[in-house]
Amino acid sequence: MHNVLISFILLFTYLSIFTPEVRASNAYYKVTHHYKIGDVFTINDGGLWHTAKILDIDTNAQSSTIHVLRYQPAADKPALKQLRALPISAYHSTIAHAKLAQKWQFIGHEVPLKPELKGYINYLKHNDFNKYAEVTNQKVDDLIFRANTLYTKGYALNQAAQYVQAIEAYHQAINIYPLYFEAMDNIGFAYMDMGDFNTAIDYFNQSLEIHPAGTTAQYYKGMCYINLEDYERAMATFKQGMESFPEQKQVFEEIYKKLKETTL
């Protein structure tokens, strides 16, 4: 009843592709204000020196955010030549442009190596898919095609009641495109078909986190609570659906009223 293949329409602009190099690409290397990718800064805080290397700079009309690689704090102020000996504490973090300008000390410049970009690339994959494709020298339409192929495979497996294999295919699609909420919904459906309603709820919640407008996830989350005979949470879920999706209010309200009548 719920195994409906949802159309997956993604509007992406085509990106210029650049040649991969051992270091970060020239297309990836840019200058914003007086900072550059690869600039290294340090600050003394609580008696320890905290050091960061700039990986990228996001600037808009309102603000500027600097993406950095952070090193383990050290007792002595590090020199640029000592940088590679410092352990890395975080492969991706952010520093406000204003904070960097006010307090951090510049100690040199070293263009990030590709292994140093892995945390930032993972961040892009989950937050800026266009730029992720650009930085990793991939085409968005190729990635989406691969994700859709796996989604279709998962759907066919689910139709054949091969739920575990279907879930694996959906996971592979999500690994390519982490914001593929339709695949998350279908994992939820597969767990519903297996009678595991608690796990299904987890996936519907994940779907709603990345796609708050997901009426499908909200509705079937409520249906899972009904199957678990947790009518209080079911009513709360359908009531939230009424409030969050006024254009679909009647669908949620119908179940909500029935539950209210049943529990009185």
From TrEMBL:
KW Transmembrane helix (keyword) present: no
Native source organism of the sequence: Pseudoalteromonas obscura
Record PROSITE patterns: TPR (PS50005), TPR_REGION (PS50293)
Keyword Repeat: yes
Superkingdom of origin: Bacteria
Stored Gene3D superfamilies: Tetratricopeptide repeat domain (1.25.40.10)
UniProt keyword annotations, A-Z: Repeat, TPR repeat
Lineage of producing organism: Bacteria, Pseudomonadati, Pseudomonadota, Gammaproteobacteria, Alteromonadales
Protein name in the entry: Tetratricopeptide repeat protein
TPR repeat start-end pairs: 147-180, 181-214, 215-248
